[in-house]
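This week, study the protein below.
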Amino acid sequence: RISRRQRAFLTRTAVLERMSGPLCDAALERKGSAETLASLARSNLLLVPLDRSGKWYRYHHLFRDMLLAELRRRQPGQIPALQRRAAQWCQDNGVPGEALEYRMQAGDIDAVAHLAGVVGFPAYQHGRVATVERWFGWLEDHGAMESHPPLAVMAAMLAAMTGKPAEAERWAGLAERGAAAAVLPDGSLTMEPWLALIRALLCRDGP
């Protein structure tokens, strides 16, 4: 009972974890998404409001799974482009953590590495240890940690502070191997101060 335009909106926005009018507009490269979301919510199409102002929504999880399966079946090539546009909107609008997740889904390794360097420690400080470990694990699985040694430094520090000495040593080794060619995000000329901090933190030469 829905139009082809509504069906396209539903399937394509299913790549989004949560939805607002501006985010949907950016991902779909169209206008009027806020009105479409409000209309769908009134139609009871398994759209769940996330606030009282009608700004943010999400799909019921099983409904979203069905929509994503339909999108993968009909238009799989559109998914990375939708994710990248959503990521860019999130970066531009102060939600880099969500941008990182979309970049991961799109397979944008360098962009994930950059964002992990920006939000890794703040996320850790807010208690999201498992999330940060997942980010670093994804980058390691994609062969990115040796080419981004500052992230290996962060991973080593995180492992040390959460009681995982063997893992901390492994990350520290990655950081040391890539240190000579490292380009540091803050413009520093050398990683040696960070490596010294890791050595101290791991008590490699004793207290």
